[in-house]
Amino acid sequence: MEIEYKDRTISFIKEPTIYDNLVLEFSKILQTQKIKHVFVSGYIALLFGRSRISEDVDILVERLSFDDFITLWKALAKDFYCHNTGDVKIAYDKYLNENLAIRFSKMEVVIPNIEFKWATTEQHKQTLEESLTVLLNGNTIIISSLEIQIAYKLYLNSDKDIEDARYLFELFREKLDLKKIQKEITNLNLSIQDVKSKLGW
User: Which residues share a beta bridge with 58?
Assistant: First the structure.
């Protein structure tokens, strides 16, 4: 798999996975409505070829007004359903505005699903602002900065998360801003030496 990384855009060609197809279809709806969003967490490693199973794909979305959320809900409802509730007002008031995620799947499918939540924290907002554009077979996917992603995965510290971070670090080592990784690590109160050991840095 040949990957081109230039000017905050990553381009490559591969056979889409079940996760990629889910993300591409979901993302297209958000892009059509010009909704700012970013895919984060485990899907980033999967997108670039890491082989493992995941139940969901995480997405952070700019906070929408209720009217705009209704418009999005109706557009999604043509091909997706919400696991949590069929009531748009409950989804908006009782879940999203209480900083709880909601999940969307394709009709008659449970796994994989999209875990959808507002970008509410300063870290979330930074992730939105510093996103990367991925062109997968010419189709656009907006993802987290790799530096933020690697640092956050190390912060989570499970075996799976450490392997995700290591995979991305090795794959993009020559393109990463190492000073930015160090800054994100410091912000998360992680030990630089411990991180370097885990990454083989």
Answer: 40, 115
